[in-house]
Amino acid sequence: MSDSDTTAKPAGETRDLIILGGGLVGMTLALAAAKAGITSHVIDRADPADLVAEGADGRASAISTASWNLFDNIGLGERLAPLGCAIDSIAVTDGMKPGRIDFTPKPEEGSLGKMFFNRDLRLALFDAAKDEPNIAWHVKTEAVRRDRGPHGVEVELTDGRVLRASLLVAAEGRQSPTRDEAGFSMAKWDYKHRAMVTALYHSKPHDGTAWEIFYPAGPFALLPLLDDEEGRHRSALVWTVAEKDAGGVIAMNDAMFVNEVSERMHGVLGKIELAAPRMSYPLRFHHAARVIDERLAVIGDAAHGMHPIAGQGLNLGLRDVGALVEVLTEGMRLGLEPGDAQLLARYEKWRSLDSFMVMSVTDGLTRLFGVPGKLPSAVRRLGMGAVQRMPTLKRFFMDEARGMSGKLPELLQG
């Protein structure tokens, strides 16, 4: 549905939700809500055609088992299933020295998740949203005014149209103006690191293994992707470098970059070459002390941003989606409106502890593996060797990777 399609609807049409941000988390919320009979206006300043253009974004995301259940339960499973590469095992190593951990589930337990190109996820979400009557999709525009009050919310768009709803949801990402306007206090710090992100072709098959190689300068992750149409093996790369060195890495030509990457891979995937554009972004931690206000819920990166060390950023946002839809559906069944304060309080209580726990573990890992020196490295490898020999502890970590721990929303259950 293009922006022009929405003009047929009367200005000020009232829906249940106004979702600011139509990215992966915002659009998943709109679709999940629509399947539950909850209507929404989705507002996004981007042009969807730009976001799904070939070569516009070579990034890929690890989708946990719980997040896959969500996509499947809202009708995207059939479309996405052939596009995801199963993560059958995870190898964790301290600089490729002896003493690594291998997380490999039993065959009957399924994979530890799936890797998808972000472009494929967007295409599936956008195609489903186009044909969904419960979603009014307003693109290439943004909110210039947001008013929240006891009787509802009102948002004015750049072209002067006014939209109304019971609840405003901020899914605008890390720089969320709605969250900042609401005055949410934030715990935040800068890791002084930058992630170098791309995809690689490699001569040896990855066999469904994700590699997490920890170096003092930061983690170096290789994540399995499906072979391309020509049968070339592919993996996604997330290489963390210190901010002071980032300029030099960004300035490297492709041949130098590939050479540096190859050195850190120790030949595990054979000869490599670039398979996607190189991108980079700074790594910062932020966690909103609150995720609700009067007729406002904050989800995804607007509420919490973390180091990509465990690949849980998008999955945490999708847990927000599942929890919010469940809370709203149950409340509306009892005759409450989506913006009801007691529903929002339940959402906040459910999500605050879970997101804080995941983020604390992620931050702790980042700091633990970032301590340089031979002694800390030896201690880490000793600890990793102990985990390797303890099935119960390995099971805990694998459940965390799958996103199957804690109180899961129904949409994220199998």
UniProtKB/TrEMBL annotation:
Cofactor(s) needed: FAD
KW Iron (keyword) present: no
Pfam families registered for this protein in UniProt: FAD_binding_3 (PF01494)
Transmembrane segments: none
Gene Ontology biological process terms in this record: ubiquinone biosynthetic process
Protein name, UniProt field: Ubiquinone biosynthesis protein UbiH
Family: Belongs to the UbiH/COQ6 family.
UniProt keyword terms in alphabetical order: FAD, Flavoprotein, Monooxygenase, Oxidoreductase, Ubiquinone
InterPro entries, A to Z: FAD-bd, FAD/NAD-bd_sf, Ubi_Hdrlase_CS, UbiH/COQ6, UbiH/COQ6_monooxygenase
Gene3D superfamilies per record: FAD/NAD(P)-binding domain
